[in-house]
Amino acid sequence: MSSLYDRLGGAKAVDAAVDLFYRKVLADGRIARFFDGVNMEEQIAKQRSFLTMAFGGPNKYSGKDMREAHKRLVAKGLNDSHVDAVIEDLSSTLRQLGVGEKEVSEVAALANSVRNDVLGR
Amino acid sequence: MALLTYREAVIDIESGEDVLSALLRAEVDARHSCRAGVCQSCLHRAVEGQPPPAAQEGLSDAQKSLGYFLACLCRPETPLTIVPAQEAGDRFEVSVQAIDRLAGDVIRLRLEHGPDFSYRPGQFIELIAEDGLGRHYSLASHPEEDSFIELHVRLYPGGRMSGLIAERLAPGRKMHVAGPLGTCIYEGIDPDQPMCLVGSGTGLAPLVGILRDAWRRGHRGSIRLYHGVREPEGLYLHDQLEALASERANFSYVACALSAASPEGGDVAQAVLERENALADTAFFLCGGERLVTRLKRELYMKGASLKQLRSDAFVPAPYQRRGERRPCLQPLPR
C-alpha cells in the first residue's frame, strides 16, 4: 500500500492545504493571538514544513527544533487546548479538500505525535 | 568550467552530491534547516546556468523563471554560478541619462546601461554611489521597450542618496547598480485573470513596469491600478494613467489621496478592500510602505485571496535595511 503522503497527493496536497489551513488558524479566536505580528512569508514556509510532516512526507523535524521554536509561545500560555485547536483546524481543512476519514485520522495522529515537543514536556 | 561556483569561489562538488552539502563541506555558512526541500531556507539563485527542474519544486513561477532553486535538492549536471537568494550579485556601470522632477518630491532618474545588465519589469536594483552608498529602487522601465532603466526616487529631507540625486547628479555621471532582485513580476498569471495593482507613493514605479509587461505579454483580463498618496500632488502619473484608462476598456485607475482637501479622497487599502471582489481569482501586486503592504496582504488573504497570487514588495526605511534584502521606504507611511 502506498504511503500516506502519496495517498494524499504529495507536495501538491501541501500546496492546496496551506492556503486553507493557515487562513483557518489565523481566523481561529482560540489561537490567533499566537500569530500576532509574525511575518506571513516566514509563517507560510513553517506551515508548509508542518503540513509535510503531518502528511507523512519527507522532513527532518526534530524534537529539539520543535521545543526551541515554541518556547516563546509556551511562555505566553500555549497549552493542550491550543494544540487541539490546531489539529481540529487541520482536520477540517482536509475534509474540505475531500480527504477520507481514514487519512484525516492518520494525519491527526502524526500532528499529535509532536504535541509534547511543542509544549516543551 | 567548474560545475559549481559560489559567488567567485569554485566549490568542489562530488558526482551526485547536492549543492547544500557541497557548500557546507566547503565551510560556506549556508542557511538551511530541513534538508528535504520543504522549509525553503536554503533558497539560492543561479546567476549563470540553469538549475535542474527538480531543484525548483514548490517554488513560485516567478522564482523558477528567475533562476531560484533549493540547494538541498540541487544536483547540478551543467555549470552553475550561484549566490544566496537575497544577494544582489554582480555590479554594472551605468551612466545618468536624465533627471526630471515628476512631482514636488519625486524624481525620475533614467540611467543608461550596458548589454550585460538584464531584468524583468517589477524587479529592483541597488543603486550605488561613488562613496559606496547603496539604496534600493524599483525599476519602472521595460527592458524590451526602453533603452534606459528608470527609477522613481522619493526625496527625503536629509536623506543621503536623495540629496546626492537632487543636488549633485548630472547627466553623464557614472554610477553602479547591483542586481536585479525581487520576484514581484508578471509570471504565473493566466492571460484572462483579473489583476489588481496597488502602490503607495513611489510603489507606483514597479507597477508601471508590470502593467506594460502584462500588455506586452498579451494579458486580456481586467487590470485595476490603485495609487495611494498623502497629498494629491503625489499622484505623479495621474494624467498619463487617466489617459490610459480612457483608451483601454479593460484598464481602470483609482487615485487615492489621504488629505481631506482632495477630491480623490481616501485610504488606498480601504478602497481596494471595498472595490475588489473575486479575490480568490485575482492576481495581486502590492508595492510600497511596509505597513500598508503587510496590512493589505493579510486582509486580502483572510478574505479569500490565494497566497500564490499575493505578490508584494514592501519598502523599508534605509536604516533598517539589511543589504540586499529589502529596499528603503522612500515615502513616509500614511497615517
What does this entry look like structurally?
The complex is a heterodimer of chains A (121) and B (335). Chain A is built from seven helices and no strands. By secondary structure, chain A is mainly alpha-helical. Chain A has a single domain, classed as Globin-like (Orthogonal Bundle). Chain A is globular and about 40 Å long. The N and C termini of chain A lie far apart (34 Å). The model of chain A has no long low-confidence stretch (mean pLDDT 91). Chain B is an alpha/beta fold and 335 residues long. Chain B has three domains: 81 residues, Roll (Ubiquitin-like (UB roll)), CATH 3.10.20.30; 91 residues, Elongation Factor Tu (Ef-tu), domain 3; 126 residues, Nucleotide-binding domain of ferredoxin-NADP reductase (FNR) module (Rossmann fold, 3-Layer(aba) Sandwich), CATH 3.40.50. Helix content of chain B is 19%, strand content 29%. Chain B has seven helices and 16 strands. The radius of gyration of chain B is 20 Å and the shape is globular. At the A-B interface, helix 2 and helix 3 of A face helix 7 of B.
Task: Write a compact overview of the structure shown.
The complex is a heterodimer of chains A (121) and B (335). Chain A is mainly alpha-helical.
CATH topology of the largest domain in chain B: Rossmann fold
CATH topology of chain A: Globin-like
Low-pLDDT ranges of chain B: 322-335
Trace the largest sheet of chain B across and list its strands. Answer: 9-8-11-6-7-10
Main sheet of chain A, how many strands, which sense, barrel?
A: none
Amino-to-carboxy terminus distance of chain B = 54 Å
Order of H and E elements of chain A: HHHHHHH
Q: Enumerate how many helices of chain A there are, as a single number.
A: 7
Task: List the total number of helices of chain B.
Answer: 7
Give the DSSP E fraction of chain B (strand runs of 2 or more residues).
25-35%
How many separate domains make up the residues of chain A?
1
Helix content of chain A: 55-70%
Q: How many distinct folded domains of chain B? A: 3
- Secondary-structure element order of chain B, as H and E? EEHEHEEEEEEEHEEHEHEHEHE
Major sheet of chain B: 6 strands, antiparallel
CATH class membership of chain A:
Mainly Alpha
Write out the CATH superfamily name of the largest domain in chain B: Nucleotide-binding domain of ferredoxin-NADP reductase (FNR) module
In CATH's first tier, which class of the largest domain in chain B applies?
Alpha Beta
